[in-house]
Amino acid sequence: MAEKRGSSITRISFFCLFLTTTVMFVLTSRSRPGVFDRKSMPAEKLLTAFNNGDSQTSNQSSVESANERKGVEGGFQLSCNGNLKEPLKIYMYDLDPEFHFGLLGWNPQGNEIWPDVRARIPPYPGALNSQHSIEYWLTLDLLASEFSENPNSRQAIRVKNSSEADLIFVPFFSSLSYNRFSKVIPPSKKSKNMELQAKLVTFLRNQKEWKASGGRNHVILAHHPNSMLNARMQLWPAIFVLSDFGRYPINIANVDKDVIAPYKHVIRSYVNDSSDFDSRKTLLFFQGAIYRKDGGFARQELYYRLKDEKDVHFSFGSVQNNGIRKASEGMHSSKFCLNIAGDTPSSNRLFDAIASHCVPVIISDEIELPYEDILDYSEFCIFLRTSDAVKKGFLINRIRSITKDEWTRMWEKLKQVEPMFEFQFPSKEGDAVQMIWQSLANKVPGVNMKINKSRRYSRFVTRKRRGLRIVPAPKNFW
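Above: the chain sequence. Below: its structure as tokens.
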């Protein structure tokens, strides 16, 4: 009996000793932050996502308010919720100026390849040329990153060694090349645009970076639907930055491989918007080309359905005769703005509507939208299937059924998301330039997986009596 009591006491003593030791360890570790040093942990690249206008990371939906601030620790940027984030590393080819700023009339001095963006920036042509100008803004942003006092505050930075890069950037102003240099000028038999595309294909295929990845980690800007028409079939492994997929075969361009970027809006932004549901007198607004080829049949159908409706503006319009000013005034004074498929699924009209805080009504079954992995467009847009929209009375009844409170919620959301569609230099956090870089960053893991898979059989391993010998792949193995 005494032995049992003694063994019981011994077990209790050991338990108390264990409990005391554990409590002391926990208290000590809390007072000494060095016990679990964050710097000894592997740094993880975290991509910032925007949800409802707030910055969040994809792997953490909520954080304590004490962490919701910016800072720098251990050489990495802290995003606004306290998580570590590295900028996207971009290697940009030093292409001859004829591919980029030379198309704007910039004349380099001596051996210059790039303009000094700290001194003077070559201007980009306005009006409809500017709507496909993303190549210009992204290139400027990379050049500016070299002079940044705090590179880790940026979404993307230029690196000079391609082995350090996440992606390879091809600075060809393809949309500008198409818009300005597509005509054949005798005695030439090819346009300058075609000649530049041919030169670019030859250049890229001779680069070690292209050969190493098969082009998969290269970023090519082809925002105008007709840009890169000659070269796209040869450069398809690259990531294309496009306005939509309307004129691309699915095996050449698709949502898994490529990035959709917004147009630059051409009408003026609605600064200090003090309007409301009642002050916007026009219910539904559309101004543009009414008779279109390809998928644009819905425009003419809707024109005949809506032209006699009261408080609806549906008219032909162009950039001539102050067309942009008239469109600005019309959108700023309208509750809803129509975005109907034309020659292609997308148009600049959507982004003009966002800049005007005019709730977009999207009638385009094949449209792909920028940042849709981040943004829920249904919070500030109305979507209608084309087959429904062209039915008698369907569209106008749907619009009239939306209450003042519903419209006001969408209008407020439009004002929140508008900065994500603004192109500017210098770029700012959360603007269109930074959002495109983020969309490209989201492609990096998939690109790396494809490159690694392609290398599975790029080396042959043969056994020898004394170990293994690596045999290089034969020529043209890729």
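The two ends are 82 Å apart (CA to CA).
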